[in-house]
Structures
1.
Amino acid sequence: MTAEYKVHGDIAVITLNNPPVNGLGLATRQGIVAGLEQANADAAVKAIVLTGAGKAFSGGADIKEFGSPKALQEPNLLSVIGAVEKSAKPVVAAVHSVAMGGGLELALGAHYRIAAPGTQVALPEVKLGLIPGAGGTQRLPRVLGVETALNLIVSGEPVKSELLASLPGQKLFDKLAASAESLPEEALALAREVAAKHAADGSAFPLVRNLPCKHPLGDAYFQFARNMVKGMAKNYPAPGKCVDAVQAATQKKFDDGMVFERDLFINLMWTPECRALRHLFVAERAASKIPDVADDTPKRDIRQVGVIGAGTMGGGITMNFLNAGIPVKMLEMKQEALDRGIATIRKNYEAQVKKGKLKQDKYEQRMSLLSTTLSYDDLKDADLIIEAVFEEMDVKEAVFKQLDAVAKPGAILASNTSTLDVDKIASFTQRPQDVVGMHFFSPANVMKLLEVVRGKATAKDVLATVMAVAKKIKKTAVVSGVCDGFIGNRMIEQYSRQAGFLLEEGATPAQVDKAVEKFGFAMGPFRMGDLAGNDIGWAIRKRRYTEKPDLKYSKTADLLCELGRYGQKTGAGWYDYVPGKRDAIPSQLVVDMIEKHRKDLGITPRKISDEEIVQRLVFSLVNEAAHILEEGIASKASDIDMVYLTGYGFPIWRGGPMHYADQLGLFNVAEAMKRFAKNPLDDAKFWQPAPLLARLVAEGKTFN
Ligand code: NAI
């Protein structure tokens, strides 16, 4: 059992002990109930303290039980809370560190609560597309008042215990302990005190369920709250249901409110949004696991970082480490380049200071961790060196040969290349086992995604170290094998090709973008092209025309580039731009250019539905992803979802391309692809289902 039982004098202490966060899995729930029974059966025990071992009171549901029938097996959480409420001896919850979700709901069932300062209190269910399902929406408003409780429930964000304890009239905590260290003693004292009081006056134990629950404005307040929430969370049903549930707490009898909450909870569980968010939760954790690299692989110490190249990427990469308190030495060829790089970093930080997002002293502290050099010798102490120089193999060769000559043994040598062969780069050194790709996304100080490119020779401890470093600098790291474009860009290339075919057939850039943005992408393909620079895709296509001459491409993007319309940086691209502004204004010139191109090809344009646009673009991602998965470039489908959710603006509530395809049914995806293949203007070869996709369809299986 994962809850311990001990008696201290006349007080029984039940301690949840299910590391890392005392998740309320079946064994823990059984332990709590058994402890309560034992305490109630022992005449020498006068009261009970319920607390958690280690780093949490309880973080809530046990993620290992996610989606398994064990989660519902008796005693389920509702029964455990019922047993606490019904205990014949008073129960004091002693919370510390983390009291979240089911953990907080459990504490709310206790007769008394004492908290250590610094406890993170939250009902984060909304982040998984749910509402609290074990009384949270009914009890929290009774102890904190409707507004405070609703804010907590709708945001899912943690609030510190001392802040909540300071709210006038709050009944969440009966007492705030002086410190985490004194909590156990103070909890025992409180338990003795309340046991004596109830013994003396014979009063009933206080229960949160018996407290009144009202808002002075009544339903008008909830109407207001609902409007607020609708505006903020238009793609998610759960926040609105939080409002409904809390409103029910003010309208219904407690037990009826509980039933209402339960119904909402169960209905939400099966919504696509909840499935997607739960998938994301699991996928995020799975991404850091590499099938053949054990969790306990020893990691190398990373205390000092070197960055080569102070350009767009080098500067952003550097900021990540400074933000995490890790010193960085930047190397360039010329002092001017270093000066420019530093000025950009300063400008970025100063903008944050101006917005009030960064304190002046923090800014200075970060800058003090940064040093620069023009000499490779100064990198001899670096534990990790990341190269972000020009994207040319000759330049990379020169850099890695020099690094090999000066870097200390065991230093990790990483390249930020986005297209070059990491194995070839590794071969420029005598230590290919220490070479790895760290593919950051632009702007590197903002974007969450980091593709960790595993070379043929990359050592396991190098991978383990880089994954740990990624976590430290707050990136979502996904491992990719070596191939052109790695996971993300290899897929986006097919998506861009397909976007080009759509233009030739009759769509406009604005129509395509609108359809894709309505689906939920942060940006459609053409707005994205204008932002990133259309010349980048042009350079890649030119390479492809010689490498793969029979690959079909639409020429529209080339025609655009021939006009010098590279995007925002040239003031014009697929759209027109007003100087100094980023608003994309549909361009008549571009529409005329596309029409002329169609005429030249003898194409009669047709109206293409938004649904077809979205399907062709998303399924082009899915089919390439199936190749990537089959080739082992990605080790699991959920990694591909993470890449698209964190690096390419795929709508979170759709769970990523693979999850989305799974939910649609792979059979349906394959059928749609067959239809697209018959379209004479599309590329039939393009829509040849990847062997893995075909196999999964035949076997009735899914990617994830
Ligand atoms: P950039 O042109 O802004 O910066 C490159 C910097 O490297 C320049 O400051 C240059 O002076 C310096 N440099 C060139 N050769 C050098 C050498 N031998 N020693 C020291 N410094 C040298 O280029 P950017 O955009 O920062 O790209 C750098 C790398 O990052 C490339 O490999 C690129 O493919 C990759 N990358 C770029 C992304 C982007 O969106 N810009 C995204 C992901 C990766």
Note: The chain has a mean pLDDT of 96.
2.
Amino acid sequence: MRIDLHAHSNASDGTSTPAELVALAADAGLDVVALTDHDTTAGWAEAIRARPAGLTLVPGAELSCRWFAPEPAIGLHLLAYLIDPAEPALATEMARVRGARETRAERMVDLLRADGLDVTWDEVLESAAGGTVGRPHLAQALVRRGLVPNVSEAFADRWLGERYRVPKADMDVFAALRLVLGAGGVPVFAHPRASRRGPIVPDELIVEMAGQGLFGLEADHEDHSPAERAHVRALAADLGLVVTGSSDFHGTNKTVGLGAHTTDPEVFERIVAAAEGSRPVSG
Ligand code: AMP
Ligand code: ZN
Ligand code: FE
Ligand code: FE
């Protein structure tokens, strides 16, 4: 069984449509793939319709969160598996974050334009294709202008990593945990030690999250070194949390391929058993 529990479509900042994503997952030899777009479930219906026989689809989302206690607050991502997409409190909060992401991206376009860089809001909206807007869409505009060679380079400090970055209006991490659990979902902390992306939270916060219903930690991820993976595994064992591995596939916006990291079938079974919001789609 090859199980990849974290992938993005163009319902957020991946480059494949949900239909293309499930086809790619089957081609990559996966048995199970989770669709986890940023702050949205908009890709679910298309992925479910297009699912090739034999592939199990796990509907989910990746929530943009922040731990507000430290100054400055620290951003983090929470994977929410098998939520009820119609549960109003979570759906409303995701909609708020998506709206705030648009305002934020528009401000980033303004900052770029103020420096004489001719990026337009229209082209950013066009590459977002109606999905959740994120920095990768701005990065694509910089690539088109020949200002950077690829999307990854656009995340350097002199570009979208720092110079033109505007913070998102993220969910409070404890509120997000309550919302996911309230929507019958299973919360897993995505890439908790990905320090190359920015500041990471201390283990003490993860202990607190575990006390508030966190179910697992993503250990095997591109952005974790072997030592970081080992640390995450040890912490999960201490706290009684499951560990997952996943690609965090973003199509051509990143170099990682589907199935680059995978999750143990027993862990997948435990996630499914804990979920009450929706079911994996299989058959
Ligand atoms: P945002 O959520 O709008 O702040 O944008 C962050 C998104 O950009 C995340 O989904 C990351 O997966 C993606 N990202 C972060 N760093 C990089 C990078 N170096 N190359 C490509 N994508 C990245
Ligand atoms: Zn992303
Ligand atoms: Fe993430
Ligand atoms: Fe992701």
Note: Strands lie at 3-7, 32-38, 56-67, 74-81, 171-172, 186-190, 216-220, 242-245.
